[in-house]
Amino acid sequence: MEKVLVTGAYGFLGRYTAKAFSEAGYHVSGIGHGKWHKYEYNLWGIEDWHESTITFEALINLNKSFDIIVHCGGSGSVAFSYQNPYEDFQKSVQSTLALLEYIRLQGRPCHFIYPSSPAVQGDLGDKQIKENDPSNPVSPYGFHKKAAEELCFSYNKSFGLKVSIIRYFSIYGVGLQKQLLWDACMKIKNAANEIALFGTGEETRDWLYVKDAALLILAIAINEKKSISIINGGSGIKTTVNDTIQLLIKLYNKKVAISFNQKVKAGDPRFYHADISVAKELGWEPQVGLEEGILQYVNYFKKLQND
């Protein structure tokens, strides 16, 4: 049985990734922050949980070797990178370096899979983004993801490590309690007549349901033969923020108007639209459509809020 280590397995993408590997027959270990009981992490397919910051010393103390390491830990917020750039660097870059060095010293083959972001490429305009498009980050978050990717390239070229980088666009789904959909649901719940949101509403997002995101990682682990690769993780469909929120309101079944303040948060992308042809070559494609996924999310939110 192949052994997988999922960092950040307590988190949103990490949990679903652990479960996907477990259901496929892998032995899954987890490391990161988060306190939960054995029966809780077992429900997500995690056999053993190690509560720790992801450092080289913590990895050595595991006293284990792995066939696959998926680095779901680290920063996941542009806003956080502006507020705490040093800590964001530690979470994104230093943790990646620790894992790569751990694999190098492990002395046996190990596939390193790194969920990254198109923030590495910056603002490319309203176009379908390919993996080989230019890279010009516009936020600390994007620069730190780029630095982590460069470490991956370095360890592949210098030491022969097998590395796959996934640039995820807009992951959402049951369990997510931050970002646009969560904030919008909270406003809809509390609104009398209208909700106000940042931006113009014409920004686009490429939504990918979290189960599909986790299954992409699994497909890469099974089918990717290249020693170094970059793969976009998205649906391949762009949806404006306005259309997304209109759908959210419809499925919430509440009559609420929307206004946009015409302001843009620093570092936020204007347009996200993924070219997913590389991912499809690995035998993967999204299974959950946007309306189905948002309905599941609305039902989850309402149950959580007793609404």
TrEMBL record:
Domain NAD-dependent epimerase/dehydratase: residue ranges: 4-223
Keyword line: Isomerase
Source species, domain of life: Bacteria
Presence of the UniProt keyword Transport in the record: no
Any GO molecular function: UDP-glucose 4-epimerase activity
PANTHER family with a match to the protein in the record: DTDP-D-GLUCOSE 4,6-DEHYDRATASE-RELATED
Protein name stated in the entry: UDP-glucose 4-epimerase
Species name: Mucilaginibacter lappiensis
Source lineage: Bacteria, Pseudomonadati, Bacteroidota, Sphingobacteriia, Sphingobacteriales
